[in-house]
């Protein structure tokens, strides 16, 4: 299975940084914050920071909504 993170944005949503995309992609594939932090070799706090920034860029209230917006608007795909 292959994955990608779109570095361009559409008209309504800002592009995600590579790390933000990796965090959202991890959540989209069912990984926990702990699993994402271990996979990316960053602290859980940094995962939370990247998630918070991704939520702002996608105008999402929850991490689940951020994942849905990112997939729907092709900010990430798998």
CA-atom Rg in angstroms: 11 Å
- Low-confidence runs of at least 5 consecutive residues: none
Shape: globular
Please outline the major beta sheet. 2 strands, antiparallel
Portion in helices: 55-70%
Mean pLDDT: 88
Structural class: mainly alpha
Instruction: Enumerate how many helices there are, as a single number.
Output: 4
- Order the strands across the largest sheet as they lie in space: 1-2
* Alpha-carbon distance between the two ends: 7 Å
Number of DSSP E strands: 2
> What's the multimeric state?
single chain
Per DSSP, what share of the residues sits in E-state strands of 2 or more residues? 5-15%
SSE arrangement, N to C: EHHHHE
